[in-house]
Amino acid sequence: VIPCVVSQWSAWSGCAEPCKTTYRVRTRHVIQEPRNGAEACPALEERAGCVEYWTRQGTECKQSLIPALITTGGFGKARKKRAAADGKERAGYCVEFQLVAITPGCLHSHHSYTHWMRYLREGHTVCVECQHPALDSRNQHCSGDGTGSRKNQLLHWQAVGNPRCKGSWRRIRQLDTCSCPSVHSFLFI
């Protein structure tokens, strides 16, 4: 029996397409074919999820692809006090999202600073405020706010303080002020 022998894996390719959630590839090749009833060769290609935030020409992709980083809205009160003291207070805005999917990691946070994650529930509408310093002064938006996304496009978010708490949501609308109950009010970081 002569077993199959394969090469080492190649380096990972870049993403198949820039500015989209897609995949990257690595390959290997057969050095020796199996003979005399030996087991077949293993897979010669592997794929892994991938997102590139830069086009092939080197310009930044649309903001809607970047996962939003969020924290509890309660953090915003302290942030506003600091910004007012610095004289850097800027008008912000709020975005309403409908939560579509949430990882189980959001429910299993036991630290006091992660209790707010328990209020994230599939189907609920949440408000996420964009304020200084997360508000980019050049484009007047927060990263991951869904500006430029298509209607009903799934967007991604991640909770700050627990990397296992993340999910997807759909942008409903942008508002000048937030009007959600405090337990459903969050903040872009």
Description of the structure:
By secondary structure, the protein is mainly beta. It has 2 domains: 1-61, TSP-1 type 1 repeat (Single Sheet); 65-188, no CATH class. Helix content is 7%, strand content 32%. The chain has 1 helix and 10 strands, in the order E-E-E-E-E-H-E-E-E-E-E. The strands form 3 sheets. It has a 6-stranded mixed β-barrel with strand order 5-8-9-6-7-10. A hairpin with a 6-residue loop joins strand 8 and strand 9 (166-175). Residues 78-86 have low confidence and may be disordered.
Number of strands: 10
Q: How many helices in DSSP terms?
A: 1
Largest sheet: 6 strands, mixed, barrel
Query: Which secondary-structure class do the elements indicate?
Result: mainly beta
Low-confidence stretches: 78-86
Return the average pLDDT rounded to an integer. Answer: 78
Keywords: Disulfide bond, Glycoprotein, Signal
Protein name: SBSPO protein
Domain Spondin-like TSP1: 4-51
InterPro entries: SBSPO, SBSPON_C, TSP1_rpt, TSP1_rpt_sf, TSP1_spondin_dom
Characterize this entry briefly:
With 189 residues, this protein is mainly β.
Keywords:
189 residues; 32% strand; 2 domains; mainly beta; TSP-1 type 1 repeat; six-stranded mixed barrel; 7% helix; single chain; two-stranded antiparallel sheet
